[in-house]
Amino acid sequence: MFEEDMEVAIKVVVIGNGAVGKSSMIQRYCKGIFTKDYKKTIGVDFLERQIQINDEDVRLMLWDTAGQEEFDAITKAYYRGAQACVLVFSTTDLESFEAIPSWREQVVAEVGDIPTVLVQNKIDLLDTTDIKNEEAEALAKKLKLRFYRTSVKEDLNVNEVFKYLADKYLQRLKQQTAEGTEAVHSSSNKIGVFNTAGGSHSGQKLSTLNGGDVITLRPNKQRTKKTKSPLSSCNLL
Ligand SMILES: Nc1nc2c(ncn2[C@@H]2O[C@H](COP(=O)(O)OP(=O)(O)OP(=O)(O)O)[C@@H](O)[C@H]2O)c(=O)[nH]1
């Protein structure tokens, strides 16, 4: 479907109140680890992982935004250019559940209706929850979002969340391609393909990564035919 040697890169923002497990989820997915310590995210972190969806190489760039209000101004800027979104609340934090509609509104206001999932994390602690299953499901239905229950601690359903998003994103991309849409977009909230040549993004300008104004499609000269370990492409930037 896509030209050979093209690589699809998707900027995914992981959003939700503080301490719901956003950083842990990204670490689990990209590095395969879980730590009990809570270290509040300051501003924004970014990890990446490469996966294959139907023989297509997809690079997921996972942006970890702080859930704390004091970082609002910084994190808002990082929504720009997001192409998929994980909205997370915690099984043990009713407020984080109640905050989901406003997080969703904020995302839609910044980047439009991008592929999004609703995630209830920490389901290993279901015994202590004040959030009823039916309520969570009703919210997902109301927001028209796929709903996953995860335990980052037990490594439950984390892969599924990101696979679903990548799938959904590719479907939309293919649909646009089939409709003859240009793959170069001038608006940050449209679907596009990043030029990922160069491997790590640390040298790139943030304006490009952030969905600055232009997302271009170019050959990725660094791509090899070798099969990579899924965890080998994780870089902490
Ligand atoms: N029991 C349990 N604890 C978890 C799970 N996921 C994360 N935690 C713990 O929850 C705490 C907060 O996790 P973080 O990943 O730092 O939360 P965050 O959402 O990134 O927090 P901010 O950076 O403040 O936005 C940590 O102590 C984690 O170890 C889980 O699935 N189960």
TrEMBL record:
Catalytic activity: GTP + H2O = GDP + phosphate + H(+)
InterPro entries linked to this entry: P-loop_NTPase, Rab, Rab23, Small_GTP-bd, Small_GTPase
Cellular localization per UniProt: Cell membrane; Cytoplasmic vesicle, Autophagosome; Cytoplasmic vesicle, Phagosome membrane; Endosome membrane
Ranges annotated as biased composition (Polar residues): 200-210
Residues passing through the membrane, by range: none
Region listing for Disordered, in residue ranges: 200-237
EC number(s) on file: 3.6.5.2
A Pfam family that the UniProt record links to this protein: Ras
GO annotations of cellular component type: autophagosome; endosome membrane; phagocytic vesicle membrane; plasma membrane
Cofactor: Mg(2+)
The entry's keywords: Cell membrane, Cytoplasm, Cytoplasmic vesicle, Developmental protein, Endosome, GTP-binding, Hydrolase, Lipoprotein, Magnesium, Membrane, Metal-binding, Methylation, Nucleotide-binding, Phosphoprotein, Prenylation, Protein transport, Transport
Membrane topology term: Lipid-anchor
Main localisation: membrane
GO molecular function, one term: GTP binding
A single GO BP: anatomical structure morphogenesis
Family recorded in the similarity comment: Belongs to the small GTPase superfamily. Rab family.
Subunit structure comment from the entry: Interacts with SUFU.
Matching PANTHER family: RAS-RELATED PROTEIN RAB
Protein name: Ras-related protein Rab-23
Organism: Leptobrachium leishanense
